[in-house]
Write a structure and sequence with these properties.
3 domains; Serine Threonine Protein Phosphatase 5, Tetratricopeptide repeat; 7 strands; 5-stranded mixed β-sheet; alpha/beta; TPR-like_helical_dom_sf; two-stranded parallel sheet
Amino acid sequence: MQPRNMSMSGVVDLAAVKAAGEAKAKAEEARAQAARQGGGGTVPPAALVIDVDEAGFEREVLQRSTEVPVVIDFWAEWCEPCKQLSPVLERLAAEYNGRFVLAKIDVDANQLLMQQFGVQGIPAVFAVVAGQALPLFQGAAPEAQIRQTLDQLIQVGEERFGLTGIAVDPNAEAAYGAGAEGAPPAPPGPYDALLEAAVSALDANDFPGAIQAYKNVLADDPGNTEATLGLAQAELLSRVQGMDPGQVRKDAADRPADVDAQLAAADLDLVGGHVEDAFGRLVEAVRRTAGDDRDKARLRLLALFEVIGGDDPRVTAARSALARVLF
């Protein structure tokens, strides 16, 4: 298969003035905050090539793309051209040393992402810059053409969005994922007592106590599914506590452009069992807003996804709708 779309023609839409200004401001703010905190912001070389699935796409691709261009390699184990292209992309990610990050997506395990990007065949390579996607090429391509495309992508990221890449520390490799003196970290848990305390707090309507208990678990074990779900539920119940449902719904109807009014109504929708209404309201809020308001609506929608659970078909449908308005 011959490579297609080996140009940056999609950059015209990607580099819209408003989006560029917002992304550049966010990147500068993130760098300033890191400097204030005294953090070097460095990553080990291993962090330049990552495997991404649907659950981690928001964090590892969309959020990461506000500081560095993310190149996405759609591949599959059975795809012979993929086996030619992927090693080249991985080697170039190391060579470019933080100017872009390579995200590898197995299409067999992540068909929803494949559909959202409109992938017609693999290998297919896309990029996400400042939360916006554009196609790069499809099919195996000569390395010289790949380099040219990457150079153009990086130039767009720098000039239009202020993305200068991430710093790579080769000496961090040995310590990456290791504990003191190079030893592997201790396994997390058990958290039975903390989780029981959180449930007891929820039962007593002590939402601040439940939130703190779940956060204590997640501070030590960020991937704890029970604590993630519990925290999302406790925060939701805390937000709706004391609300006047009639007033909230009136405010949402009277002020459709008021993001805070829509967030409050979506919370009430979800608590009342109107899941599709809650998701649809927030997807529409994302569609009609920009900047901080858009981020606020998007993040609340992701939080409500956690309440329902990623395997629920209503969440899957809403994720597709969200991707359409974001891209």
